[in-house]
Amino acid sequence: MSLVRRAVNAAIHRAYTAIRRAGAISPATPGGYRFRRMGDGVSIAFPPGAIFGEAYIEIGDHTLVGERVSMSCGMNPGLDLGPSSILRIGRGCSIGRGTHIVAHQSIDIGDDVFTGPYVYVTDQNHVYDDPDVPIGRQWPRNSPVSIGSGSWLGAGAIILPGTTLGRQCVVAGGAVVRGTFPDHSVVAGVPARRVRGYTPELGWHDPVRLGTAS
C-alpha cells in the first residue's frame, strides 16, 4: 500500500471514529432530551436504527445501546399513547447491534440484561382470525412482555407478545420464545422450551426429565 493510500485510509478511519462519537445519543445531546427518561451514562451508538415514540421510552443509568438498534413505541411517530411509558429498559443493560424492540402496550426489560446482535422483542403481532383476509391487514393484538433482570438473550432470539422471563434467564441464539418461564431458566428451540433450570434444592437440572418444563 502506497504512503498516499495509507494516509487516506487513516484519515477516513479517524473521521468515521469522530462521526460515531459525535453522532451518539446521550442525555447531554438534543436527541436525548426527547426520551421520557435517559439515565446517566446512557449511550445509543451511531448510526442508530429507527427510533420514535421517545416520549414513551425510559432507559436506566449506564445502559449501552449498539449500532442500528431500533426502539419504537406505536405504529408511527407522533401518536398519543397515553400518560405512561410503554418501553422501559433498566440500568446497566447492553443491547446488541441491530436489535429491534417494538412496543405498543408494555415491554419491561430489567436491570443488567444483555442481548446479542439482531434480537427482536415485540408485544404486538398480527392475528389470523379471518382466513380470507390478508394477515398483514388483520388488526394486531397486544400482550405485555417482561424480561427479568440479569438475563441474557442470544443472537437472533425472538421474544413474542405475552412472554415473561424470570430473573437470570438465558435464551439461546435463534430461539422463538412465547410463554412464562421462571427464574434461572435456560430456554432454547423453535418454539422455545425450558431445557435447564436451577433451584437451591436440586441445583442445575433437566426440567424435562423432572416434568417441570414449560
CATH homology-level superfamily: Hexapeptide repeat proteins
- Determine the strand fraction and express it as a percent band: 25-35%
Question: How many H/I helical runs?
Answer: 2
Task: List unreliable stretches of 5+ residues.
Answer: none
Number of strands: 24
Q: What is the H/E order?
A: HEEEEEEEEEEEEEEEEEEEEEEEEH
Share of helix, binned: 10-25%
Radius of gyration, Cα only, in angstroms? 20 Å
Mean pLDDT: 93
Which strand order do you get reading across the main beta sheet?
A: 1-4-7-10-15-18-21
What CATH architecture do you see?
Answer: 3 Solenoid
Class derived from helix and strand content: mainly beta
What labels describe this entry?
seven-stranded parallel β-sheet, single chain, mainly beta, six-stranded parallel β-sheet, transferase, Trimer_LpxA-like_sf, about 210 residues, globular, Galactoside O-acetyltransferase, acyltransferase, 24 strands, about 10% helix, UDP N-Acetylglucosamine Acyltransferase, domain 1, Hexapeptide_acetyltransf
